[in-house]
Specification:
This protein has about 475 residues and is α/β, with parallel strands linked by helices. About 45% of the residues lie in helices and about 10% in strands. Helix 5 packs parallel to helix 7, helix 9 packs across helix 13 (about 355-380) and helix 10 runs parallel beside helix 11. The longest helix is centred in the last third of the chain and has 23 residues, at about 355-380. The radius of gyration is 23 Å and the shape is globular.
């Protein structure tokens, strides 16, 4: 809209004047107690924001050519079936494919057959660490113009399993060899940082950002200190981020992540951006009244887009208790298509820029996360804090605080802890075990366990059926 001076005749109103007007309208009620609320991160949210809130703030802008892709996740235990499914998904609106590779026997030629690699970004989630598999993939893609994300993340395997793939030395040695193979090839991103495990385990947003940054810094430190440095002027990296239901905070979280990454790599003399892959959180998803999960994932995908995610993978409404479900996957994909093509979210990914509330949240989250990151580094770094179980303890404390709010219904999940449909029956529909699995084993660190808010309540309801 052009500036035609429509409001020139009106005097500017200061933040102080707005607050005075609000206090007058409250008729004696306390402003702070009535209208301010505090988030799980300790951020006090005001009832209004003003240009004055951004006077000392550093606003963040996305790249001019920023766009986001709709991704489809596919489990590739059978290369031929996975390829057939991928081609079908691409015909039905998917723009990127995320293959989960469970073993070393994958045939990449068959898996990627007939996929237009030049226009279809491919992401891999390898459930193992093996250099020969990477060599086979590189051999197939050699000479092809392709965008490949290997998403190799040793530390996430450690946080989830409690152990390295092999051991610290061998894992890092293999990572160095893989990086040396890929670093000279255009379009291939090797390293990934999966922050979704922190969110799904109950970490608040400041913790997610700080742990993700410290997690990434372990890789930067390793490669910058390696005999042959892999870090020169560029260090491409992918952040996988889980997005939950706090709409505006989640937008700010993704923006803060990109700002923090830019701040960190400046210290290494690196100039590249990061790739953000977003997926809805599992923490607030429910077994009962599962259709509400579609509403949750829609708003979470909106947050991801407005926060600047580069790739968005949706979560099916029944992901926590069903195996592959073609109907659920189609609905999840269509949610993103509706946002992109009919709600014009392909054109407004920068809509959050300059908004007083979101810019203020971005600044506060980034500053608090940076402070926590510095504490972690001063204590020996992320791996050191994991070994001492400090990270695990802090996440547990945050998760318990959030769980208590859910138990007392201060956090509401409609259909679960409020407005239950007592006629719902789920006992005979479970194809997957939807709760925390206990697998006693020897580990070198305490694993970070993902847990949904509704689990205890749902287990009781299942027991009562």
């Amino acid at each position: 809209m052009s500036d035609q001076g429509l409001f020139d005749e009106f005097p500017e109103v200061s933040a102080k004047q707005w607050k005075q007007k609000i206090q007058f309208d409250l008729k004696g009620a306390d402003y702070n107690e009535t209208l301010l609320w505090e988030s799980l991160e300790g951020i006090k949210v005001k009832p209004f924001y003003h240009a004055e809130d951004l006077q000392n703030a550093k606003t963040f802008k996305l790249p001019k050519d920023h766009n986001w892709k709709i991704a489809q996740t596919i489990f590739a235990s059978d290369a031929k079936k996975a390829n057939t499914k991928a081609l079908g998904c691409l015909k039905r609106g998917a723009e990127s494919i995320v293959f989960t590779i469970p073993n070393k026997n994958v045939d990449f030629k068959e898996l990627l057959s007939k996929i237009d690699l030049e226009h279809t970004p491919i992401h891999f989630n390898f459930q193992f660490l093996d250099i020969e598999s990477i060599k086979n993939l590189l051999e197939f893609t050699d000479g092809k113009k392709a965008e490949i994300n290997l998403n190799i993340d040793l530390i996430t395997n450690l946080t989830k399993a409690g152990n390295w793939f092999y051991n610290l030395e061998k894992d890092h040695s293999l990572l160095e060899k893989i990086y040396s193979l890929t670093s000279t090839k255009k379009g291939i991103v090797t390293i990934s940082v999966d922050t979704s495990v922190y969110q799904n385990a109950g970490a608040n947003m400041v913790q997610q950002l700080a742990y993700g940054l410290a997690h990434a810094n372990e890789y930067l430190n390793h490669f910058s200190n390696a005999t042959v440095s892999a870090v020169e002027r560029s260090f491409p990296i992918t952040f996988k981020v889980a997005v939950s239901g706090n709409y505006f905070f989640e937008i700010a979280k993704l923006r803060a992540l990109r700002w923090l990454w830019q701040s960190l790599i400046t210290e290494y003399g690196i100039e590249n951006d990061c790739h953000i892959m977003a997926i809805p959180s599992k923490r607030n998803k429910t077994l009962y009244d599962y259709n509400v999960n579609m509403l949750r994932t829609t708003s979470e995908c909106m947050s991801a887009i407005l926060g600047g995610a580069d790739t968005v993978m949706n979560l099916t409404y029944d992901a926590i208790y069903h195996k592959d479900n073609e109907f659920g996957e189609r609905i999840a994909r269509n949610q993103l298509l509706l946002l992109k093509e009919e709600s014009y979210f392909n054109q407004i990914s920068k809509a959050a820029e300059g908004t007083y509330y979101i810019e203020s949240l971005t600044q506060q989250l980034a500053e608090r996360a940076l402070e926590l990151f510095k504490q972690i580094e001063n204590s020996g770094g992320f791996l050191s804090e994991l070994k001492k179980a400090v990270i695990q303890r802090k996440i547990k404390e945050s998760a318990e605080k959030e769980q208590q709010l859910f138990n007392t219904k201060e956090i509401t999940l409609v259909g679960t802890n409020k407005y239950q449909n007592v006629q719902d029956r789920m006992k005979n529909d479970l194809e997957l075990y939807p709760f925390v699995k206990i697998q006693p084993r020897k580990t070198i660190i305490e694993p970070i366990i993902e847990k949904r808010l509704a689990e205890a309540l749902e287990q009781k309801r299942l027991g009562d059926e």
